[in-house]
Design brief:
Blueprint (H helix, E strand, L loop, with lengths): L1 E5 L5 H4 E5 L10 E10 L2 H8 L17 E7 L11 E4 L8 E5 L3 E3 L6 H5 L4 H11 L8 E5 L4 H12 L3 E6 L5 H7 L3 E4 L4 H8 L5 E6 L4 H7 L7 E4 L12 H5 L4 E4 L2 H5 L4 H16 L7 E6 L3 H8 L7 E5 L5
Parallel strand pairs: 8-9, 8-11, 9-10, 11-12, 12-13, 14-15
Antiparallel strand pairs: 1-2, 3-4, 3-6, 3-15, 4-5, 5-7
Helix pairs in contact: 4-5
């Protein structure tokens, strides 16, 4: 079977290779074996290859935070999935043709779910969902501001917020994105800049913005903070700038802003396995009926992992880069 390995940390397309490795074998008690149908290349996977991610396992190592798989065999004691089921895997190392994992690590998704959308279910949808629910208490009618609004997470925040009766002001780098975000349900869109607080105030009619979602870091965090109402919160979940978040002390001391960080695993760890399954069941239904979706630009074969990684790092993309390790589904 084939598996992606990195033997050193560095530029992803230079350090990643597609290798022939031993088959995963048959499942033992409480284990599941599945074929990987598709996996996405996420920013965290790129950071993993570069050695800048929080996890640095012994090398050689296999990247891959998420995938969609089809169960081929289950061991004794596994009753919640069976052969033929589509599943997401809560564990990593998914850039491979097959996986053998503990039964509790796989979660079944709706059979009719679009495979491309299913491949992107594990990380971005619950990230968007939980940032809206777990950071600060929000009521219907409250405003949420987010930078990187055209990102995969940002495009999910918009419909998830609307479903809760929340309003979103979406900060982007170019006005050409306004039409697409408005079609998703964005209540307001603004272009980032030094006068961001004034632009947001005009866009929201002066309504208080209770929560700011930041995936840029650096000075962008400080600009976002100026848009948030006294006593509100700024949540950082990424660093597209490559810098640490910056925020003025007056925002914290005099205006009482709260600043927090978001990592999906940490927030999921607060929940029981049945609660986690319920979250994914709900998100799966929303993907199935079209309420949620994420764009895909291209699907590569696993042998072309270097080209796929290079493509995934291009700034001007219209969607996610996916890889089909067992052939196009």
């Amino acid at each position: 079977m084939k598996r992606v390995l990195i033997d050193s940390y560095g530029q992803p397309e230079e350090v990643a290779r597609c290798a022939d490795v031993a088959d995963v074998g048959t499942p033992g008690p409480d284990e599941v074996v599945f074929d990987v149908v598709l996996f996405p290349i996420n920013p965290a996977d790129v950071w993993f290859c570069k050695g800048s991610y929080r996890l640095k396992p012994p090398l050689p190592a296999t990247p891959g935070a998420e995938c969609i798989g089809r169960v081929t065999a289950v061991g004794s004691g596994v009753s919640h999935v069976e052969a033929g089921d589509l599943v997401i895997n809560l564990q990593r190392e998914n850039w491979a043709q097959k996986r053998r994992v503990k039964g509790d690590d796989v979660i079944r998704v709706p059979a009719g779910l679009d495979l491309k959308q299913a491949a992107m279910l594990r990380i971005n949808p619950p990230t968007a969902l939980l940032m809206l629910s777990d950071i600060i208490t929000l009521q219907a009618g409250d405003w949420v501001a987010q930078n990187v609004a055209n990102s995969a997470v940002g495009r999910l925040v918009i419909p998830l917020a609307k479903a809760r009766g929340l309003k979103t002001v979406n900060i982007v780098r170019r006005e050409a994105l306004f039409a697409d975000l408005t079609a998703l349900g964005a209540d307001a869109c603004v272009v980032d800049g030094p006068d961001l607080a004034d632009r947001v105030k005009v866009a929201t009619g002066g309504a208080p913005v209770r929560l700011g979602l930041d995936a840029v870091s650096g000075a962008a965090t400080a600009r976002l903070a100026t848009c948030i109402a006294d006593g509100g919160a700024v949540c950082n979940y990424g660093a597209m700038s490559g810098e640490d978040p910056v925020i003025g002390r007056s925002e914290l001391i005099y205006r009482g802003l709260m600043v927090s960080g978001f990592m999906l695993g940490r927030f999921m760890a607060r929940r029981t396995l049945p609660q986690i399954r319920d979250i994914y069941a709900d998100l799966g239904r929303q993907l199935l009926d079209g309420r949620l979706s994420a764009p895909v630009e291209k699907i590569y074969a696993i042998d072309d992992i270097k080209a796929a990684l290079k493509h995934a790092q291009q700034a001007a993309r219209s969607g996610k880069i996916l890889v089909a390790p067992n052939g196009m589904p």
